[in-house]
Amino acid sequence: MKHLLSVDDLATEEILGLFETAADMHDVQSREVKKLPALRGRTVVNMFFEDSTRTRSSFEIAGKWLSADVINVSAKGSSTSKGESLRDTVLTVCAMGVDGLVIRHPASGAALQVSQWVDASVVNAGDGMHEHPTQALLDAYTLQRHLGSLDGRHVAIIGDLTHSRVFRSNVQCLTRLGARVTVVAPPTLMPSGIGPWSAAAGFETSYDLDEVLRGAGTHDDVDAVMMLRVQRERMSGAFFPSPREYTVGYGLTRDRLSLLAPDVPICHPGPMNRGLEIAADAADAAQSVVLEQVSSGLAIRMAVLYHLLAGDLQGGTA
Amino acid sequence: MALVIKGASLLGEETTDLYVDDAGTFVDAAPDGAETIDADGLVALPGLVDLHTHLREPGREDAETILTGSRAAALGGYTAVLAMANTTPVTDTAEAATRVWELGREAGLVHVQPVGAVTRGLAGEELAELGLMHRSRAGVNVFSDDGRCVHDARVMRRALEYVKAFGGVVSQHSQDPTLAGPAACCHEGELSGRLGLPGWPGIAEEVIVARDVMLARHTGSRVHVAHVSTAGSVEVLRWAKGQGIDVTAEVTPHHLLLTTDLLAGYDPTFKVNPPLRPQEDVEALRAALADGTIDAVATDHAPHARHDKEHAFVDAAFGMLGIETALGVVRTALPDLSWSDVARVMSVTPARIAGLADQGRPLAPGHPAHLVLVDPDASVTVDRDASASLSRNNPWHGRELTSRVVHTVYAGRVTVRDGALA
Amino acid sequence: MPATEQTGPERGDRTVLDARDISRALTRISHELLERNKGATDLVLLGLHTRGVPLAKRIADKIAAVEGAPVAVGELDVTMYRDDLRSQPTRRAHKTALPPGGIDRKVVVLVDDVLFSGRTIRAALDALADLGRPSAVRLAVLVDRGHRELPIRADHVGKNLPSALAERVSVRLAEVDGSDEVTIS
User: Fold this and answer.
1) How far is C-alpha B248 from the geometric centre of its chain's CA atoms?
2) Residue C21 sits at the chain A interface (C-beta within 8 Å)
3) CB B394 within 8 A of CB B319
4) Where does substrate bind (chain B) (predicted)?
5) A with C: how many residue pairs have Cβ under 8 Å apart?
6) Cα(first)–Cα(last) distance of chain C, in Å?
7) Pick from B199, B266, B306: which is nearest to A192 by CB?
8) What does the alpha-carbon distance between residue A312 and residue B9 come to, in Å, rounded to a whole number?
């Protein structure tokens, strides 16, 4: 494994291997000395072309706990406006001797493109509406800790699918691990061509959240619920009439919470719009795993950096 | 210099010798002191005419100039190109148009005919000085805001009406900007959904084509649809032509062969506007070109400097090279198209649409000697570094294309000899 | 890595310890540990992955049988502390599990199958430093085959096995390999 650009790059056993490593890394978080020497002498650059305090911090801590030198480069206010190409921007940074490049970019495909230009290992920390593989890994890892194996489990993903890289990575990761996935959104927030896509990839779609949560109709009982953030800027794009109407149709409200068994974990990648896609009662419920996702995220990112950067950089994972 | 072209197959049919005098006109006997070109096994076509070329000069001479674009055109078998107006400054005045025309004459390799902007600064609001551009030495006949759609129906209506006065034509970039966000960069479909790329639905093109043919009917003017890319647009055009509406349409070589699947690797080389579409659309476009619903092939040759393409996909510039490879692509995409049909869609009809009286003429005595000699059986593997263009955004790199341009003659002057600039 | 191999005895292999020899060696080490430590109080046995882990458990069981009380046992993975980490493809790490009382102020006994270059033990000492502060660290190995590259020695040795550098010492344990045996080839 040279880069982590898409969940699609990972074989099932590689995902499970990352989970095993993540479990070890998880233990490190409870130690007094939160430090492993595995990446001593390695340099990791967090290159964020888009603000994201939580993902950037997570990668930064993950790298530091593995003893890597971590440098944050805020590349926001894209170089396009300065007349510099993306290629020039990343080559300039990588010329400083970078082993790992963690990249967040508002454009889909940017991480893949960058990986073709640089020698460093590239980790996609979110590219536009395309993918966010470490988020999907941490979500699946968190759910696996609660549900045991994901094989045959039913996970509902709810929200703005069109603009969500979290959805795109998660649907691949969860189905890869044997979960059955139902995605729920109003038609205007379903990606174009989701019909043939879902048929080929083997997941279900629905416009009716209540039916899915009740396990009514053709749906099975839900074993886990994953809420997606609704971006504020979508409010003006005629995707739905009003926040109120969105909440009534697709929010995890107090009433809908009561439809769920008390051991069904509720995920949200954050930051949450409380009162919009998720009610406070749901966000703070005992079955909410939102904070656990954060610590899982650290463990997963440590595992990813370890697998990419600890060994001989010319080789792969043994 | 006078020419004797020996043994060329006219439009792929009868084999004959062609004679060109010192004035660059076909004559019926060998002139004295003529250079002999051996055209044994080669097909002779009237020089190709491109309704849609971006030469980037003035403004982006690092990407292409009128001279380098003319060279590329000659290598592609062209003897005339229509230089699109979206330069910096925009070709929206008589002076700007005349300057382009003059630079084309100085280059002297093809006829460079400026296209005028429909609206001032391509802003879509006020009409540019259409009549003055027409009256200028450049004699502008074709007007287009290409790169942008003349979206305001009122403005489009007035433009169509106004150019009737002098027989001009509006070439429309059909794309409703409200049906796709400003970040739209590819065909909207299953692949764009998976890739997370904001897309243009085919309907964004089709609604404008439908509106414009109705406006053409209403105004009694003619409209030209640039780079048709969807099966739905073809349906509208077929209907409109059946109704007798005065509409013509062009298709690009890339829309005849390349499909949207190429975007899976996010390579901005394949980012183009209108976007590459699925195979069903490609099939419909080929059929429409063969049956005459689409009148012409136009390259939309769009050079870009490397640094304008080396961005994230959504940030990279739109467009691809195409003028050197157009004939090979058409032969590859439509191998059953007869040579006389090739001449029709790549020379005769485009010349008529553009109002270029001395282009696309028969290869017969008394007509100007614009011609291209093609090896029909050769195949060429495209090498982007071998291009005469200043740019390298070549989607055909590494592909094998059928047929090869061997010689090009512009007004009796050999511009390309044995596949190289003369 | 120490030259331990999972493959079974092959032609030319010479058995140097059989199952009974191994059991006797571990019994002796158990008694030595108790004697040296004056009982099992504050003793923590940490097995090094892979075969040190079952060896530590066996020694713990033997001590418990003698003392009549359980003895703290855990496992230690040193993958991330190895000095050859980056000269080969990334290896998957194993679990590190300390007993509930931790290792602070305890006598930690590192248990491994073969002592060879000493580099694994060097890594283990580094790992221990990140985990806590034992009052003492001792080393118990089933086989010491010599060829040290670092100033490290074992406190308790099952068998000293002089070997040529090119020879391969293979430890097989029932928990991992299905049977107990030490061979040299």
Assistant:
1) 13
2) no
3) no
4) 54-56, 86, 273, 304, 318-319
5) 66
6) 17
7) B199
8) 64
Rounded-to-integer distance, Cα A90 and Cα A115, Å: 10
Question: Which residue of B262, B280, B310, B393 to mutate against A (max A Cβ within 10 Å)?
Answer: B310
Residues with Cβ within 8 Å of residue B225, at least 6 apart in sequence: B171, B172, B174, B209, B212, B233, B237, B247, B248, B249, B250
**Token reading at B254:** 């890339």
- Using alpha carbons only, give the angle C170, C175, C181 rounded to the nearest 5 degrees: 35
Query: Cβ B195–A130 below 8 Å, yes or no?
Result: yes
Any chains having at least 3 CB pairs less than 8 A from chain C are A
List chains touching A (3+ CB pairs under 8 A): B, C
Looking at residue A57, its amino acid is S
Position A308 scores a pLDDT of: 95
Q: How far, CA to CA in Å, does A295 sit from each of A5, A21, B199, B413, C180?
A: 22, 14, 36, 75, 41
A71 close to A45: Cβ distance less than 8 angstroms: yes
Per-residue pLDDT of chain B (422 residues; tens, 9 = 90+): 799 999 999 999 999 999 999 999 999 999 999 999 999 999 999 999 999 999 999 999 999 999 999 999 999 999 999 999 999 999 999 999 999 999 999 999 999 999 999 999 999 999 999 999 999 999 999 999 999 999 999 999 999 999 999 999 999 999 999 998 788 999 999 999 999 999 999 999 999 999 999 999 999 999 999 999 999 999 999 999 999 999 999 999 999 999 999 999 999 999 999 999 999 999 999 999 999 999 999 999 999 999 999 999 999 999 999 999 999 999 999 999 999 999 999 999 999 999 999 999 999 999 999 999 999 999 999 999 999 999 999 999 999 999 999 999 999 999 999 999 99
- DSSP class of B416: E
From chain B, pick out residues whose CB is under 8 angstroms from the CB of A85: 306-308, 310-311
Domains A7-131+295-309 and A133-292 share a fold: yes
CA distances from C26 to A175, C50, C110 (A): 48, 17, 14
Q: How far apart are CA C172 and CA C142, in angstroms?
A: 11
Topology (CATH) of A133-292: Rossmann fold (3.40.50)
Rounded (10°) CA dihedral A259, A261, A263, A264: -50
List the domains of chain B with CATH numbers: 47-360 (3.20.20.140)
For residue range A88-117, what is the model confidence (pLDDT) as tens digits?
A: 999 999 999 999 999 999 999 999 999 999
Q: What is the pairing mode between strands C181-184 and C14-17?
A: antiparallel
| Facing residue for A311 by CB, picked from C81, C91, C130 | C91
pLDDT tens track, chain C, 185 positions: 444 444 444 557 899 999 999 999 999 999 999 999 998 889 999 999 999 999 999 999 999 999 988 999 999 999 999 999 888 888 788 888 999 999 999 999 999 999 999 999 999 999 999 999 999 999 999 999 999 999 999 999 999 999 999 999 999 999 999 999 999 98
CA distance C83 to C76: 16
SS3 of B70-132: HHHHHHCCEEEEEECCCCCCCCCCHHHHHHHHHHHHHHCCCEEEECECCEHHHCCCCECCHHH
A7-131+295-309, what's its fold? Rossmann fold (3.40.50)
Sketch out chain C's domains with CATH numbers.
20-165 (3.40.50.2020)
Cα B148 from Cα B117, distance rounded (Å): 10
**Is B115 in contact with B142 (CB distance < 8 Å)?**
yes
> Over the stretch A221-263, which tens digit does the pLDDT of each residue have?
999 999 999 987 777 778 999 999 999 999 999 999 999 999 9
E strands within A22-178? Answer: 43-48, 69-74, 100-105, 121-127, 154-158
Q: How far apart are the first and last CA of chain B?
A: 13
